[in-house]
Amino acid sequence: MKVLVVLQMSRVELYAAIRRDHRGGMSMRELECTHGVTWRTARKALDSAWPQPRKKLPPRASALDPYKPVVDASGGLQEPRLVVSA
Q1: How far is CA 55 from CA 16, 51, 58, 85, in A?
Q2: Are 19 and 49 in contact (CB under 8 A)?
Q3: Other CB atoms closer than 10 Å to residue 46's CB: what's the count?
Q4: Per residue in 20-37, pLDDT tens?
Q5: pTM over the 0.70 mark
Q6: 3-state secondary structure of 66
Q7: How far apart are CA 68 and CA 47, in angstroms?
Q8: Three-state SS at 40
Q9: Which of 13, 16, 33, 63 allows an S-S link to 9, with CB 3.0 to 4.6 Å?
Q10: pLDDT confidence of 86, banded at 50, 70, 90?
Q11: How many Cβ atoms from other residues are within 10 Å of residue 17's Cβ?
Q12: How far, in Å, CA of 51 to CA of 38, rounded?
């Protein structure tokens, strides 16, 4: 039984390790198993020395968005006033 140990390394280091092992004679399947990546990632590492930058995700809607009109109509969120009587 093989135990896969994945060390935390940057994607640039991972790509370099995949290319180094491929030059050493490892097959695609061995690269996948050794480095814990899919065949697409192994192919990208062999095709390019630099990984593509991550895609920027669009901003997500807030969970409070459906309630904003109700809060705004009621005067918004304000701190309660402290009444001190002498």
Answers
A1: 22, 12, 9, 58
A2: yes
A3: 15
A4: 999 999 999 999 999 999
A5: no
A6: helix
A7: 49
A8: helix
A9: 13
A10: low
A11: 16
A12: 14
Residue with tokens 């135990």: 3
Range list of H helices, 1-86:
11-23, 28-35, 39-47, 68-73
Spatial separation of the C-alpha atoms in residues 16 and 70, rounded to whole Å: 55
Specify the pLDDT at position 3.
Answer: 53
In the chain, the amino acid numbered 51 is P
Pair of tokens at residue 26: 């490892």
DSSP 8-state symbol, 7: -
Q: What is the DSSP letter of 50?
A: S
Under a CB-based contact definition with an 8 Å cutoff, are residues 32 and 4 in contact?
A: no
